[in-house]
Amino acid sequence: MLKIQSICKEKRITLQEVSKRLGISYQSLYTSINGNPTLNMLRRIAKVLDVRVVDLFEEEEGGDDYKIYIEHNGEKRLISKEDLKSLFNQKE
């Protein structure tokens, strides 16, 4: 589950302000974060909030893993926390 709203509260920024900085409507942002945001959208949100993409995800209670699914070419794949960390530690 994403914790974008709690990060916004911590940083004292509204979702409306995030949407303005992203250049999209509030409704588009809300729909994205409550649905299935793309990796590109997560990167953009993380940049606006000055956090890492992995910081946008809540850890499961009693565990140290995230349950993150990425859809690529119509196929959904479960991505581990380590996979996600290595993905975002790569230089672009």
3D structure, described in words:
The structure is a single chain. This protein is mostly helical and 92 residues long. The protein has helices at 4-11, 15-22, 26-33, 39-49, 81-89; strands at 68-72, 75-79. Strands 1-2 form a two-stranded antiparallel sheet. Strand 1 (68-72) and strand 2 (75-79) form a beta hairpin. The protein starts with a helix and ends with a helix.
Write the layout of secondary structure elements.
Elements (H helix, E strand, L loop, with lengths): L3 H8 L3 H8 L3 H8 L5 H11 L18 E5 L2 E5 L1 H9 L3
Antiparallel strand pairs: 1-2
Helix pairs in contact: 2-3
Average per-residue pLDDT, rounded, comes to 83
Largest sheet: 2 strands, antiparallel
CATH class descriptor: Mainly Alpha
CATH topology: 434 Repressor (Amino-terminal Domain)
Counted by DSSP, the helix tally is 5
Give the name of the CATH architecture: Orthogonal Bundle
Q: Give the number of domains.
A: 1
Unreliable stretches, pLDDT < 50, 5 or more residues? none
Shape: globular
Radius of gyration: 13 Å
CATH H-tier superfamily: lambda repressor-like DNA-binding domains
Distance between the termini: 26 Å
Beta strand %: 5-15%
Question: What is the share of helical residues?
Answer: 40-55%
